[in-house]
Design brief:
By secondary structure, the chain is mainly β. It is 0% helix and 50% strand.
Length: 115
């Protein structure tokens, strides 16, 4: 089982990024997937989850209206479109599949929002 996040980087406030999470070693369409982020010294924060078909999504208040989760099960890939980015969105972003104790995580991708 493997999850590989990509698409992070440095962006100015107000900018956009699209993160990807490539899944392998399991059947993606069977699972609801979560997106999380973590700032050094703080607990990992859940920011979004997307249902197996992609038809239902939920978002934390901090990102609601700015972030959009989607998925392409045929490509075994999930996406997180992030718009109107703020400095407080700076974090390492992870996707998680509920397989195994605590779920399984990718290595994360760094997002830095700074002018």
């Amino acid at each position: 089982l493997q999850l590989v996040e990509s698409g992070g980087g440095l962006v100015q406030p107000g900018g956009s990024l699209r993160l990807s999470c490539a899944a392998s070693g399991f059947t993606l369409e069977y699972y609801t997937i979560g997106w999380f982020r973590q700032v050094p010294g703080k607990e990992r924060e859940g920011i979004s989850c997307i249902s197996r078909s992609g038809g239902m999504t939920n978002y934390a208040d901090a990102v609601k209206g700015r972030f959009t989760a989607s998925r392409d099960n045929a490509k075994n890939t999930l996406y997180l479109q992030m718009n109107s980015l703020k400095p407080e969105d700076t974090a390492v972003y992870y996707c998680n599949v509920p397989i195994g104790v605590g779920g399984s995580w990718g290595q994360g991708t760094q997002v830095t929002v700074s002018s």
